[in-house]
Amino acid sequence: MSKVVNWGIIGLGNIAHKFAEDVLLTNGARLCGVASRDVHKAQEFAEKHKVAKYFGSYEELALDAEIDVVYIATPHVFHFENAMMCLRNNKAVLCEKPMGMNAREVAALLAEAKAQRLFLMEGIWTRFIPITEKLLALLERKII
Fold this sequence. Notes:
The protein is of the alpha/beta class. It has six helices and six strands.
């Protein structure tokens, strides 16, 4: 039997709503908790998407033992801080782009993820479009 992956979301803007809707369409995934700096916004989001847990701080979500992986949808300048907090609390991370504001931040996140043996990924969805995969294969074979 496969394990259900429990997701959390930090930052509850427009993109987070789309992500929450998509998690519902995914087998083996469950949206377990959401966090905003405004607990009322978190509660409204949780009610709309039928999420059991909501938090008024990102730290509370990062400390929840039930959550396996966190989707970070905060403003860009906070991605490093939020991703590092999650990694240091044993959470895998899917972070909206850019993952960091500079190469130093990204290198620090990669090092932390490797040290903790945790999954870390920047959310570049175009990488997973079939035509992109085909183009990369053609480039590798030097057809183009």
